Amino acid sequence: MQREFGDSELVTADEYGYVRLAVCLANDSSLRATLKTRIRERMDAGSDFLNPRLYGQRVSEAFQRLFEPETRHGLASPAAVEPDARPVA
């Protein structure tokens, strides 16, 4: 959500970074106020992730890419490979 708003300074890579950010925000009321105003303005302006139809479309497309047949990648699809009908001795 914060990346969508362009507030990458509020995105951390790990728990340690999150704790450092939380401590920083807890100790800096002017920074909190600035971020609150910026986030509220961006939410009021509308964002793609607040649009349920667009969000659903993007999630659907992501799942389709994730589960598309391997043939699109030049590999044989599991359904295209015929199992050997002969019994194994």
3D architecture notes:
The chain has 89 residues and is mainly α. It has one domain. The chain contains four helices and no strands. The termini are far apart. The C terminus is likely disordered.
List the helices and strands and how they pair.
Layout: H1 2-5, H2 15-27, H3 29-45, H4 52-67
First-residue to last-residue Cα separation: 58 Å
- The helix count comes to 4
Strand residues, percent: under 5%
What is the 3D form? Answer: flat
Q: How many structural domains does the protein architecture include?
A: 1
Give the strand tally: 0
Query: What's the Cα radius of gyration?
Result: 23 Å
Mean pLDDT: 76
Which percent range fits the helix content? Answer: 55-70%
Secondary-structure element pattern, one letter each = HHHH
Coarse structural class: mainly alpha
Q: Name the poorly predicted regions.
A: 80-87
Largest sheet: none
In short:
This protein has 89 residues and is mainly α. Helix content is 56%, strand content 0%.
